[in-house]
Amino acid sequence: MIAFVRGEVAAVTLNSAVLEVGGVGLELMCNPNTLATLRVGRQAMLPTSMVVREDSLTVFGFLDDDEKQVFEIVQTASGVGPRVAQAIVAVMSPDDVRRAITTEDVKALTRVPGIGQKGAQRIILELKDRIGPPVGTHHVATAGHAGAPWRDQVHQGLVGLGWSSKESEKAVDAVAPEAEDMPDVGALLRAALRTLSKA
């Protein structure tokens, strides 16, 4: 099991990052919040979770161990695979996930693309006694520079989570006024997802 990866960031794509480790480029699937913190040519260390399937071996990278832990726990619920688990930690902070499950907040969970009402109820039922209470940690992913780059990151994040390019563009436009006060890509992504869930 690969617990974490440390190395120079060689590339950042729409939904993954490549870290050079000992002369080997290792691709990590990451959500937009994590990708927003990475810069090509800089060193990075990301906690990781490896998902092994018959036809693939995928490594997921995270902002911190808390996010990784929630990603792994939610996959123990029936019907939740790595793609949905990654969408959960992209849309909600680890404590938001714990809070939604322990307070049985179905509405909060259905904001995640790929989770309907029945799926949310099943996650709550199966994980309520295992997820634990909110621990009070939070992380902020900043864009690093103001202006247009946040638009691309949020748009790419929405497309990566399954929304169409047109829907994503509308959501980005809807949250644009908030960007001046909040240059936080993770928060802007969540705001854009809230806009889409209301549509």
Automatic annotation (TrEMBL):
Alphabetized SMART domains for the sequence: HhH1 (SM00278)
Protein name: Holliday junction branch migration complex subunit RuvA
Entry's family note: Belongs to the RuvA family.
Subunit structure: Homotetramer. Forms an RuvA(8)-RuvB(12)-Holliday junction (HJ) complex. HJ DNA is sandwiched between 2 RuvA tetramers; dsDNA enters through RuvA and exits via RuvB. An RuvB hexamer assembles on each DNA strand where it exits the tetramer. Each RuvB hexamer is contacted by two RuvA subunits (via domain III) on 2 adjacent RuvB subunits; this complex drives branch migration. In the full resolvosome a probable DNA-RuvA(4)-RuvB(12)-RuvC(2) complex forms which resolves the HJ.
Domain Helix-hairpin-helix DNA-binding motif class: start-end pairs: 72-91, 107-126
Function of the molecule: The RuvA-RuvB-RuvC complex processes Holliday junction (HJ) DNA during genetic recombination and DNA repair, while the RuvA-RuvB complex plays an important role in the rescue of blocked DNA replication forks via replication fork reversal (RFR). RuvA specifically binds to HJ cruciform DNA, conferring on it an open structure. The RuvB hexamer acts as an ATP-dependent pump, pulling dsDNA into and through the RuvAB complex. HJ branch migration allows RuvC to scan DNA until it finds its consensus sequence, where it cleaves and resolves the cruciform DNA.
Location of the region described as Domain III in the Swiss-Prot/TrEMBL record: 146-199
BP terms from Gene Ontology: DNA recombination; DNA repair
Keyword check for Nucleotide-binding: yes
Domain of life of the native organism: Bacteria
Keyword Oxidoreductase: no
UniProt keyword terms in alphabetical order: ATP-binding, Cytoplasm, DNA damage, DNA recombination, DNA repair, DNA-binding, Helicase, Hydrolase, Nucleotide-binding
Domain-related comment: Has three domains with a flexible linker between the domains II and III and assumes an 'L' shape. Domain III is highly mobile and contacts RuvB.
CDD domains: UBA_RuvA_C (cd14332)
Subcellular localization: Cytoplasm
GO CC aspect terms: cytoplasm; Holliday junction helicase complex; Holliday junction resolvase complex
InterPro entries noted in UniProt: DNA_helicase_Holl-junc_RuvA_I (IPR013849), Hlx-hairpin-Hlx_DNA-bd_motif (IPR003583), NA-bd_OB-fold (IPR012340), RuvA (IPR000085), RuvA_2-like (IPR010994), RuvA_C (IPR011114), RuvA_C_sf (IPR036267)
GO MF annotation list: ATP binding; four-way junction DNA binding; four-way junction helicase activity
Main location: cytoplasm
